[in-house]
Write a structure and sequence with these properties.
The structure holds two protein chains of two kinds. Chain A is mostly helical. Chain A has helices spanning about 1-25, 25-40, 50-80, 85-90, 90-95, 100-135, 145-170, 170-200, 220-245. Chain A starts with a helix and ends with a helix. Chain B folds into two domains: about 10-215, 3-Layer(aba) Sandwich (Rossmann fold), CATH 3.40.50; about 225-310, no CATH class. Chain B starts with 7 loop residues before the first strand and ends in a 5-residue tail after the last strand. The chains are: A mainly alpha, B alpha/beta.
Chain lengths: ~250, ~325
């Protein structure tokens, strides 16, 4: 029933997200078809394999950036709710006196948010694959599939972060604001440590999820994926602890 | 499915809740018999809502223990919530859902949910089931909250200020539903209020809470038949002579005693202590409440300015 209510509240946004997911293929197609034309081919004409591979590589980069930013925003939206929002609007006393554990409400909300992220990711990837295949004329490489977990983990990080801020602050506005501010600060700090570490050999490089977008499959990427997935789940775990102790 | 009427529905022992400097509940010991309609009275900020929040697991006690339907709060909370229906003080649900959808949503949590009861009470309470909750009047919102509680077929109904802000007709309707349909089936109704008239209308037990302390817990029937105020004139009268004296206040040359039983014998005792004049008056709930709770006013209007003293009573 809780799932039903979340669906009832989010269904419009869900379909809007799917449309955004579909639209993601548009910049990917525009940029890659420009590549194809610049290389002296027509869109849909079959180029040599190595050239097609280059087009696909560029297409995946563009998709990674466009869908990566979009899916993070999807995550921020999908995470801005749950118990924190219930407290904000005054319905927490009603919800938390239903015979379910508080963990049920926390993780059910997380699950529905995750499904939204996955749905968005699949829509963006499938539509982009279709237009790239049409533009380039050859099927894409297998590591195109790596974008699925990478984008999903990006979205899950957005959910976890905003859910934690929403739960802690008990308002959605502060939750989203806190999530965005933290993201900007963290990435800025990541950039600074990157520069200091690589240029001046000072300190250490702060890990950021941007490392996920190096789509060369190897053990390091697998570890990075698992690590950031664990971080996204841990953020919800912290929210769970807050909700478990919450007094309303 | 109904609760047995002989069981204890709620029992608290030394229940305490402290928020920073504020002792919202101060060692409260409360006993609510199964099958009773218990009116939990107190002024604003007396600790009524805090008590309810503790019982339902919405807050954790600082000290003390509480059992609801034989289950310990905190450790057996889900079992308590399965058998307890709750109407919060703030009637806030989901604005975009209709009462019909709210019933659909809530019913999924309760295996014992009664759709028949919902249909019946929706008809009796005249609830517009297809209108969005956010568009409903305050009265209709309250009715929806009561409807959701009644549909649970719960053994215990906990209602926090259920009739606050309602017009007399709606109030009367709801009280009738609560009394006739619920209490008559052996369910326990525990409701907080400061509307003394309505409490008197349906409750069979009352508890009076003030500043986090339970000052009185008694059967309403006993209050009507036994409780008296004894007004005695004279100097040097005793402050509190026995456990039956619930409160003592002095105003000028007169001393007022609220006694839970044996008023005539108590009056005779005062005469023996040298009271110049002694009169015994019956008390209704409102008068009793004021006598017990309005201590500051009584003290400040009295010439002697002595403090009112209390003794707890368990009938």
């Amino acid at each position: 029933m809780y799932y039903w209510r979340i669906w009832r509240e989010n269904r419009v946004r869900f379909f809007a997200l799917l449309i955004v997911g579909l639209v993601t293929c548009w910049p990917v197609s525009v940029i890659v078809s420009a590549d194809v034309v610049a290389a002296g081919y027509e869109v849909g004409q079959v180029p040599p394999a190595e050239l097609a591979s280059r087009f696909w590589g560029h297409g995946m980069e563009v998709l990674g950036i466009a869908a990566g930013i979009a899916v993070y925003i999807v995550g921020l939206l999908a995470g801005s709710g749950g118990i924190g929002e219930e407290v904000e609007r005054g319905s927490a006393a009603f919800l938390l006196t239903r015979p379910r554990s508080r963990g049920y409400f926390v993780w059910s909300f997380w699950l529905t948010g995750s499904l939204q992220v996955i749905a968005f990711t699949l829509t963006a990837m499938l539509s982009s694959y279709a237009v790239l295949f049409y533009d380039i004329g050859r099927p894409g490489p297998w590591n195109f599939l790596l974008l699925a977990p990478v984008l999903t983990i990006t979205g899950l990080l957005g959910i976890g972060l905003v859910y934690l801020f929403t739960t802690a602050s008990r308002t959605t506005k502060n939750g989203v604001g806190g999530g965005v501010a933290f993201t900007v600060l963290y990435l800025a700090l990541g950039f600074v440590t990157y520069v200091l570490h690589h240029k001046y050999r000072i300190g250490f490089r702060l890990p950021t999820p941007l490392a996920l977008y190096d789509l060369n499959w190897n053990a390091a990427l697998a570890g990075t994926m698992l690590g950031w997935l664990a971080v996204s789940v841990a953020l919800v775990g912290v929210s769970h602890c807050i909700v478990a102790r919450l007094e309303v | 499915m109904t609760a047995t009427t002989t069981d204890t529905a709620i029992h608290t022992e030394g229940l305490t809740k402290i928020y920073g400097e504020l002792r919202a509940l101060d060692g409260m010991t409360l006993h609510v018999a199964g099958g009773s309609v218990y009116g939990f009275l107190g002024r604003n900020g007396a600790g009524k809502t805090t008590t309810i929040r503790l019982l339902l697991g919405l807050a954790r006690p600082t000290a003390g223990s509480a059992h609801v339907l034989g289950r310990e709060i905190g450790t057996q909370q889900l079992e308590i919530l399965e058998r307890t229906a709750f109407v919060p003080e703030r009637k806030v649900l989901y604005d975009h859902l209709t009462p019909h959808e709210l019933v659909h949503f809530t019913s999924g949590f309760y295996p014992r949910w009664s759709h028949e009861a919902v249909e019946k009470y929706a008809r009796i309470l005249d609830i517009p089931m297809k209108q969005k909750f956010g568009k409903l009047s305050h009265g209709n919102r309250t009715k929806v909250c009561i409807l959701l509680a009644l549909g649970q077929n719960a053994d215990l109904l906990i209602l926090d200020e259920p009739t606050i802000g309602l017009d007399p007709v709606i109030t009367d309707n709801m009280l009738r539903v609560l009394l006739e349909e619920q209490a008559s089936q052996g369910r326990t109704v525990f409701f907080s209020s400061h509307q003394l008239a309505e409490v008197e209308q349906i409750a069979d037990w009352i508890g009076i809470l003030d500043q986090g302390k339970l000052l009185l817990e008694a059967r309403l029937e006993d209050i009507r038949s036994e409780y008296r105020v004894v007004v005695a004139g004279g100097n040097g009268l005793p402050a509190a002579t026995s456990a039956q004296v619930l409160s003592v206040s002095r105003s000028g040359a007169f001393t007022r005693y609220v006694v839970s039983s044996g008023a005539e014998a108590f009056a005779a005792g005062l005469r023996e202590h040298g009271a110049a004049s002694v009169e015994v008056f019956p008390l209704n709930l409102r008068e009793l409440f004021l006598e017990i709770v309005r201590k500051e006013e009584l003290c400040t209007t009295g010439e002697s300015g002595e403090k009112t003293e209390y003794a707890s009573s368990r009938s």
